[in-house]
Amino acid sequence: MAPLPGSGLAKGLAVTLRTMTKKTVTEQYPDAQPELPPRTRGVIGLFEENCTVCMLCARECPDWCIYIDSHKETVPAATPGGRDRSRNVLDRFAIDFSLCMYCGICIEVCPFDALFWSPEFEYSETDIRDLTHERDMLREWMWTVPAPPALDPGAEEPKELAAARKTADKLAAQQETPQPPEASREAARAGEPHADEQARAAEQPTRPMGDSKQQTDQPRPDQPEQEGRE
């Protein structure tokens, strides 16, 4: 069936009218800031206190855009007679965002939650060499990371939060309980016998006079001395 004359023109005018009546989606950036979703992948933030320099993020990065430098330090033993420990100290953590393809693998493989997505996106540079951001800038972006979403009703609490809350409650209970001075506790231990020793002493029967071997070998006052004693 052949199209009616002028139907194409009417169809085009209908599309034009429908588009003109819609709300505009153009945003006048940077005069108007866009409203981004809360979990937007803008840039990667670093929480360096959690970084143990395990190098997993650098090894797993498909673009090799993460640069890490570190050195080892010796930590003295916490107790007398203990062994000294060595730990890695982070010297440099940088990401070249001119190479990064924002895949998020480094964030996924980090076993200590040191890397996070930040919605910050205003870090363009006029020189591509300035897109390698060091750990100071990565740390600044860490404070723009939104809080994690709330758990679903009835969901199990994460084990990390439960362990942290248990430790905090234990420390609070220790601070509220009055502790006696150390000198008085030492004096009490030195002057009083142990409770177990007191219990064993009470259970042992008193040995009668003359039942021991040493006492049996001695002549009793009411027995005559044996003759021919060798």
UniProtKB/TrEMBL annotation:
Bias (Basic and acidic residues) ranges: 156-169, 183-200, 219-230
List of residues binding [4Fe-4S] cluster 1: 51, 54, 57, 110
Location in or out of the cell: Cell membrane
Binding site for [4Fe-4S] cluster 2: 61, 100, 103, 106
Molecular-function GO term, any one: 4 iron, 4 sulfur cluster binding
A GO CC term assigned to this protein in UniProt: plasma membrane
Predominant cellular place of this UniProt entry's protein: membrane
Topology class, membrane: Peripheral membrane protein
Cofactor(s), names only, from the UniProt record: [4Fe-4S] cluster
Catalysis performed (reactions): a quinone + NADH + 5 H(+)(in) = a quinol + NAD(+) + 4 H(+)(out)
Stored Pfam families: Fer4_7
Keyword terms, alphabetized: 4Fe-4S, Cell membrane, Iron, Iron-sulfur, Membrane, Metal-binding, NAD, Oxidoreductase, Quinone, Repeat, Translocase, Ubiquinone
Region of interest (Disordered), ranges: 149-230
Note describing how the cofactor binds: Binds 2 [4Fe-4S] clusters per subunit.
InterPro entries cross-referenced by the UniProt entry: 4Fe4S_Fe-S-bd, 4Fe4S_Fe_S_CS, NADH_quinone_OxRdtase_chainI
Chain ranges of the 4Fe-4S ferredoxin-type domain: 42-71, 91-120
EC number: 7.1.1.-
Described function: NDH-1 shuttles electrons from NADH, via FMN and iron-sulfur (Fe-S) centers, to quinones in the respiratory chain. The immediate electron acceptor for the enzyme in this species is believed to be ubiquinone. Couples the redox reaction to proton translocation (for every two electrons transferred, four hydrogen ions are translocated across the cytoplasmic membrane), and thus conserves the redox energy in a proton gradient.
Subunit annotation: NDH-1 is composed of 14 different subunits. Subunits NuoA, H, J, K, L, M, N constitute the membrane sector of the complex.
Protein name: NADH-quinone oxidoreductase subunit I
Taxon lineage: Bacteria, Bacillati, Actinomycetota, Actinomycetes, Kitasatosporales
